[in-house]
Design goal:
Blueprint (H helix, E strand, L loop, with lengths): L3 E6 H13 L4 E5 L1 H5 L3 H10 L4 E4 L2 H9 L6 E3 L8 H6 L3 E4 L2 H14 L3 E6 L14 H13 L3 E7 L11 H19 L6 E3 L3 H6 L7 E2 L22 E6 L2 E5 L4 E2 L5 E2 L4 E6 L16 E4 L2 E6 L7 E4 L10 E5 L9 H8 L3 H7 L7 E4 L4
Parallel strand pairs: 1-19, 2-3, 2-9, 3-4, 4-5, 5-6, 6-7, 7-8
Antiparallel strand pairs: 1-10, 10-18, 11-14, 12-13, 14-17, 15-16, 15-18, 16-17
Helix pairs in contact: 1-3, 10-11
Bound molecules: pyridoxal-5'-phosphate.
The site of pyridoxal-5'-phosphate has 11 residues, from loops.
């Protein structure tokens, strides 16, 4: 018996990866950072590889090493690397590293020396996001230093890459502008004597809407988990995560009863209340107070009053409700129940944040479609 759980349908991840793969002539990197967007990094990675991904993308060195310790041998790129990490462990484990500055490059040269093999690098150019990547002004110096290190056998430049500002708004002028800057950056790399095998900048949105950005490799994350980066579009993807709980306690209260902390909700009529054992410590945003949608007894309902750390309350009116009844917070929406998109809209965030939050440790995560 379970009281709350996050179910992850690995067949959905396989099918989504396969759909993304068949929609492009490029290779597919499934991004599995942040514990696979809350779905479980290793099972999600295996399912995506089964579905046709050839690469995995993560942020941290730890994430990359965790994939290797799980026995995953596919190419892995890690791109969020603060100074002073044991990068030689990554090089020794065959992890590709994202690099955006001369000081990072120097660390990677050292890491290659320590590991006894050249570090495999993807040079990142900032084409407009002003987050990761070398600025256009700093790009030539990075290219020259990388070309020299490669000539000396100290590194191997495998890729050149960048990241979009606003690809989730198809037609936004930043997309064409960034693509043009990226192509200029690639031209400069070639003139510096580099022949990067992988040129990549497409996230989920660009993978789904802009084939001209696919180049050699696409890097979708969100879409692998069946969620759409573009509001109102589904692209035939199937959401893999369902969050649900069982009603813990029911009670009949009179009209005018204040409900939960602060009494921000008051019953209009006598009502059956259902107490649900999930709260903000489990991933339910506190902003879902009086707004989060759930499905109980075949009906959509809205959370009544504040979301607490561990529980919330539903006003079910005169509908019969019993302890043990199933409450779906979000799933694939096939039964008319809410989706992560509905939650994002209700609390003023994005579907990315909803699923990532539910990758918490207290709610057990269970897998459907697991393969040996
Ligand atoms: C997270 C991330 C992605 C994947 O983005 P989605 O919008 O989830 O497809 C791709 N590239 C980089 C650099 C990222 O940080």
């Amino acid at each position: 018996m379970w009281q709350a759980e996050v179910r992850v349908d690995l067949d959905a991840i396989r099918e989504n990866a396969s759909r993304l793969r068949s929609g492009t002539g490029a290779e597919l990197m499934a991004v599995v950072k942040a514990d696979g967007y809350g779905h479980g990094m290793v099972p999600a990675a295996r399912a995506a590889l089964d579905g046709g991904a050839g690469w995995l993308g993560v942020c941290t060195l730890d994430e990359a090493l965790t994939l290797r310790r799980a026995g995953i041998t596919a190419p892995v790129l890690a791109w969020l690397l603060a100074p002073g990490l044991p990068l030689h462990e990554g090089v020794a484990a065959g992890i590709d590293l994202g690099v955006a500055s001369l000081s990072q490059l120097a660390e990677m040269v050292e890491a290659g020396r320590a590991a006894g093999r050249p570090a495999r690098l993807h040079l990142k150019i900032d084409t407009g996001l002003a987050r990761g990547g070398a600025t256009v002004a700093d790009w030539p110096a990075l290219l020259d230093a990388a070309a020299k290190a490669q000539a000396d056998g100290l590194v191997e430049v495998v890729g050149v890459w960048s990241h979009f500002v606003y690809a989730d708004s198809p037609g936004h002028p930043t997309i064409d502008r960034q693509l043009a800057v990226f192509h200029e950056g690639i031209g400069m790399a070639e003139r510096a004597g580099l022949r990067p095998r992988y040129r990549h900048l497409a996230n989920s949105a660009a993978t789904l809407t802009r084939p001209d950005t696919h180049l050699d490799l696409v890097r979708p994350g969100l879409a692998v988990y069946g969620l759409s980066p573009v509001a109102g579009e589904r692209y035939g993807l199937r959401p893999a995560m369902t969050a649900r709980a069982r009603v813990m306690l029911t009670k009949r209260v009179p009209a005018g009863s204040g409900v939960s902390y602060g009494h921000t909700y008051t019953t209009e009529r006598a009502a059956n209340l259902a107490v649900v054992p999930l709260g903000y410590a489990d991933g339910v945003p506190r902003h879902a107070s009086n707004s989060g949608p759930v499905q109980l007894g075949g009906k959509r309902r809205t959370i009544s009053g504040r979301v607490c750390m561990d529980q919330f309350v539903l006003d079910c009116g005169d509908d019969p409700v019993s302890a043990g009844d199933e409450v779906t917070l979000f799933g694939d929406g096939a039964d008319g129940g809410p989706t992560a998109d509905d939650w994002a809209e209700a609390v003023g965030t994005i579907n990315y944040e909803i699923v990532t939050r539910f990758g918490s440790t207290r709610v057990p995560r269970r897998y459907d479609g697991e393969r040996p």
